[in-house]
């Protein structure tokens, strides 16, 4: 190919790269919304067979997604309340908050009972319902007992409206009565041994996962917090909300990207300078890698419409593998000396690069089969990046590398040759058999120590401070965890409420046994019509003889007007769900109603509170029609476990797919020797993970898939390159070691990531690639000794 054609091809390739880069810039920064996804829920795969359950999980997760909960606390009650008012005033100045609430409009607590007075005779607790159903129920005793008992909460019905205490008992079981927060001085306040806690809530004007919103909101919160801590010494602020978790995840990812990217870039640069002794190869290697990363980022955002945190950090690590293709071409140039010709050099490395690219694409393609959008995006990112980096070697580097280059440094070649000869000597003949037997004996205890952990919480580790503050806020407010919930469906609202009541009976049994703290559901606030009519029937025995009831109340000291008002109010009217949902009291709980989910279907959510196991919660829903336990974390963990169990089969399938390719290229007798380094590297890695008591996850197995691909690449590079460097033994293995070192500097650094999933990924690659690179000379040992 003429020099003119080489330049035309290179210019065309660079113009295409420029267009791809401009598209990537627009996709990332030119649109109104951010393309960087920090919402962990968006990364998780669908786990529920019922599509409505997935919708419900999304609805619940984002019900308060843009809401921030803040609690000011101080040993002095007045200081805590003053700090809350000041906090609200400072935050309200910033338009990043759509609303900030601390003080409530003045109201009488008794107003909470007003919506229920007309329906009071249909609202009974289980205890009152059981008592009324007993033949020996004594109304006079119940009347006297209620008159003399103190209210359990500040929210209650007036005695003249509820002389037997039925409505009062029912109100005490409502969610707002279980909360430790009560209005004081128009502020929701809780008192504990160490002081007072005052609630402040804020709603963002945009998404918690938007980078601009995050930065503005966190800056405003930090400034306001510093201000109130200065003006009210001793004040602490507790905070929770999706904003803080998303910002922490983004910060950790950015730190990982910068750390992995900077260290790997500097390390790879120093290695390339030491080996090639020129700035040109360094710049061209990075240019080729940059093209791969630009193309990978653009295509990933184009295909998935966003890019995940995991992919960002993974992309920073991809630098070490994408540079392999240019390293092989640069090595061929350095080894050719004065006889260098770009076209001949390209022909020389083409088989090795295509075989290496094929094995890498195979490993990443299998990674992309997992129905987990983050893993699929990582696979897409890697496949496009590898292909683009390899393509740049074919289309760009020949035009830029016309002149001969300095040979590889003597110390790198001599060191590589010494290591190559040592490995070859110990892996052939009887020594090889003894060494393999010894390695097997050492590996078996490690394999026996292997165990698995599929917990989705290992995907990412939220800051302990945020988790502790969230738990403390839950303890104060009495609200439960929304990660587990029941989806209750019925043909209509009535059937749905009846099914929810059947579930709540079981949940009450668990609560009585101390297995659950409680639950929140619509049927607990709006009983079914069947239940309300049954409750009215139970009270009929008292009101069927109004004269007797009138006498009891008169003897107890009630005024005649109040007695007549009560008798005329019975039996009241049933309370309908739709009417209740329109009341202000229902506002915090409307997210529990799924609306008319589908024709002839109604659905609601029931939230258990406490730390009950998945098995116990599942048992509560067993054999209840229309009731489904939705546990997103358990579902994703189960899915991870399902695919982790198949991972070994995928690994075996990948090996089998490589076998015919290597058999065609190198002969069937050579296949075991060529595949031995990556296979032994996988076995060694598993043994080391066992000795380290590191539980295996899906991410370990996905990394082992890449160990196979990368290890096969090194064997290919060595097999394809050695015939061209017979004049300088060790030069080809030096380039393999250089490729391995760049991979270890990038992928290996993931072992120190803040994301547990990437830690697993990085540690496995660190062990696997390191071992495989050392064992690669065994794949050509017979050739070396025969020569």
TrEMBL record:
The chain crosses the membrane at residues 6-29, 260-276, 282-304, 352-372, 379-401, 432-450, 649-668, 674-692, 699-718, 730-752, 764-785. It is a multi-pass membrane protein. Keywords: Cell membrane, Membrane, Transmembrane, Transmembrane helix. SUPFAM superfamilies: Multidrug efflux transporter AcrB transmembrane domain (SSF82866). It is found in: Cell membrane. InterPro entries: MMPL_dom, Mycobact_MmpL. Residues 141-401 form the Membrane transport protein MMPL domain. The keyword Membrane applies. It comes from the Bacteria. One of its GO terms (cellular component) is plasma membrane. Its main location: membrane. This is Membrane transport protein MMPL domain-containing protein. It comes from Dyella choica.
């Amino acid at each position: 190919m003429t020099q003119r054609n080489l330049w035309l091809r290179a210019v065309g390739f660079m113009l295409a790269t420029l267009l791809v880069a401009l598209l990537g810039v627009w996709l990332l920064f030119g649109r109104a919304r951010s393309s960087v996804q920090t919402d962990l829920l968006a990364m998780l795969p669908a786990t529920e067979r019922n599509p409505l359950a997935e919708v419900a999980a999304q609805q619940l997760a984002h019900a308060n997604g843009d809401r921030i909960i803040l609690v000011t606390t101080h040993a002095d009650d007045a200081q805590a309340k003053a700090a809350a008012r000041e906090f609200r005033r400072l935050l309200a100045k910033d338009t990043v908050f759509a609303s900030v609430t601390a003080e409530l409009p003045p109201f009488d607590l008794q107003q909470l009972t007003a919506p229920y007075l007309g329906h009071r005779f249909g609202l009974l607790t289980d205890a009152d319902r059981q008592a009324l159903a007993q033949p020996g129920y004594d109304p006079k005793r119940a009347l006297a007992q209620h008159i003399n008992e103190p209210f359990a909460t500040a929210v209650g019905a007036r005695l003249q409206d509820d002389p037997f205490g039925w409505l009062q008992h029912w109100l005490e079981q409502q969610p707002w009565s279980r909360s430790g927060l009560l209005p004081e001085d128009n502020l929701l306040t809780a008192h504990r041994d160490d002081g007072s806690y005052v609630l402040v809530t804020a709603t963002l004007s945009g998404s918690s996962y938007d980078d601009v919103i995050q930065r503005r909101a966190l800056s405003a919160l930090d400034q306001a917090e510093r201000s109130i801590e200065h003006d009210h010494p001793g004040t602490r602020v507790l905070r929770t909300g999706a904003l803080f978790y998303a910002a922490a995840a983004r910060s950790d990812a950015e730190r990982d990207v910068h750390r992995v990217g900077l260290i790997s870039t500097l390390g790879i640069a120093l290695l390339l300078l030491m080996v090639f002794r020129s700035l040109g190869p360094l710049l061209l290697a990075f240019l080729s890698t940059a093209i791969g990363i630009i193309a990978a980022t653009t295509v990933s955002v184009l295909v998935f419409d966003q890019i995940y945190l995991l992919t960002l950090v993974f992309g920073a690590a991809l630098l070490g593998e994408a540079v392999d293709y240019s390293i092989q071409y640069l090595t061929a140039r350095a080894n050719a000396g004065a006889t260098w010709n770009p076209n001949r050099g390209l022909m020389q490395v083409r088989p090795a690069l295509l075989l290496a690219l094929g094995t890498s694409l195979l490993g990443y393609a299998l990674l992309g089969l997992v129905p987990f959008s983050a893993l699929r995006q990582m696979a897409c990112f890697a496949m496009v990046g590898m292909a683009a980096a390899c393509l740049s070697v074919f289309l760009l580097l020949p035009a830029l590398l016309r002149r001969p280059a300095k040979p590889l440094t003597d110390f790198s070649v001599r060191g590589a040759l010494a290591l190559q000869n040592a490995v070859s000597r110990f892996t052939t003949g009887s020594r090889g058999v003894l060494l393999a037997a010894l390695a097997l004996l050492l590996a078996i205890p490690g394999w026996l120590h292997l165990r698995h952990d599929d917990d989705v919480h290992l995907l990412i580790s939220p800051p302990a401070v945020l988790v502790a503050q969230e738990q403390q806020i839950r303890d104060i407010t009495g609200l439960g965890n929304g990660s587990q919930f029941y989806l209750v469906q019925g043909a209509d609202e009535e059937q749905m409420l009846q099914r929810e009541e059947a579930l709540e009976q079981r949940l009450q049994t668990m609560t009585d046994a101390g297995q659950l703290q409680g639950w929140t559901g619509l049927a607990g606030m709006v009983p079914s019509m069947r239940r309300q009519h049954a409750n009215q029937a139970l009270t009929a025995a008292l009101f069927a003889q109004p004269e007797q009831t009138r006498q009891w109340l008169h003897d107890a000291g009630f005024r005649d007007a109040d007695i007549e008002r009560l008798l005329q109010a019975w039996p009241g009217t049933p309370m309908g769900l739709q009417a209740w949902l329109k009341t202000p009291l229902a506002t915090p709980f409307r997210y529990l109603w799924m609306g008319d989910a589908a024709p002839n279907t109604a659905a609601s959510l029931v939230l258990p509170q406490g730390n009950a196991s998945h098995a116990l919660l599942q048992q509560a829903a067993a054999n209840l029609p229309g009731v489904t336990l939705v546990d997103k974390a358990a579902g994703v963990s189960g899915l991870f476990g399902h695919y982790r169990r198949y991972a070994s089969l995928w690994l075996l399938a990948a090996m089998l797919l490589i076998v015919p390719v290597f058999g065609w290229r190198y002969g069937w007798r050579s296949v075991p020797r060529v595949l031995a380094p990556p296979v032994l590297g996988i076995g060694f890695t598993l043994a080391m993970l066992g000795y380290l008591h590191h539980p295996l996850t899906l991410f370990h197995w996905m990394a082992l898939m890449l160990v196979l691909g990368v290890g096969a690449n090194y064997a290919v590079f060595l097999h394809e390159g050695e015939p061209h460097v017979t004049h300088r033994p060790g030069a080809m293995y030096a380039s393999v070691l250089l490729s391995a070192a760049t991979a270890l500097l990038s992928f290996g650094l993931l072992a120190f990531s803040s994301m547990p999933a990437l830690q697993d990924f990085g540690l496995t690659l660190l062990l696997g690639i390191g071992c495989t690179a050392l064992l690669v000379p065994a794949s050509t040992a017979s050739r070396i000794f025969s020569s």
